[in-house]
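Hi R.,

Here's the chain you asked about this morning:
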Amino acid sequence: MFIRGLIMRFRRNQRFLLYCVIGATGASFDFLVYSGLLKTFATTIQIANAAGYLCGTILSFILNARFNFKTRDFVALRFVSFCAVGFIGWAASAAFLYLLVNRFGFDKYLSKLMTIVVVVLVQYNLNRVLSFRILKTK
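And the predicted structure, written out as tokens:
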């Protein structure tokens, strides 16, 4: 009974869990680019955040389209939609980073990790509805 309930719960949430795994991959890539730019090129946190976010968004789109939502149609339109949602996420991330680092004095690396958690939840729901469902064929 317990195992059956877990299996049913997993199946209901399978797409979200895979989105989280893919999102963790994209977020890790984002964080690596962010950290690398800060340490190697001494860029500002906002420039490093934008570059990292863009790299993570592109990787996440490719992986989600192929493995999670399994879409091969309207790729350019889906990518634009995914990037628009990503832009909303980036704007929220930039605002949170500004507040946490510049106003509250938090560590710039810890702050980046904290913003990722909030943004993933918002972006999953927006992408699920806008980028991968709205253009469904048959």
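The two ends are 36 Å apart (CA to CA).

Let me know if you need anything else.
M.
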